[in-house]
Fold:
Amino acid sequence: MPENENTTPKTVQENEAKQVKELLVMRTQIIPAMNLGTETAPDWAVCGRGWKKFSESPNAQTESVKYINMESEATDTTSYSPKYAFECDLMASERTVKEVYSIAKGRKTGSDCVRPFLVIDKFDPVDGGGYVAWYEKLAVAVSSIDGDKKMTVSGDLNAQGDTVKGVATISADGKISFTPDSGSDTNENA
Structure:
């Protein structure tokens, strides 16, 4: 970029830094929430305080083939086996943490440990209000309840079926609602 009398090297660096910052998504802009209500009367609670890790692994499944006229294999993505690794401080006042803890302590299995979750992309607003959000049912699999002084709970949240894209709105008082995109199928009426 050629310099002129209005563009100093410092201004160029500041503009480049601003552009990079505008492209980066911060951790606070991806909001996980768990439904602590029912399908007909959802009560979306943000997994915020206490949650130290909510790390998504899409786990793409692939299949490779090498035809007789090819020197190298071609690899296709055929499906996904997603999960979220989590870790949270055991904070009894946080409803989502308490729910995960009670699933582990109650030794729940099967559908008794599956909970609806939303992952709200607050960095991706939609026309008309709200944000792009992803709904999925996740099976809570606690692998550790441990601590030297402060207790932590950790494990995986394993996907149960397909993800549903939609729009989440967050009211001024923090209440979350979810509407699936038209054509999407979910039993979670919000």
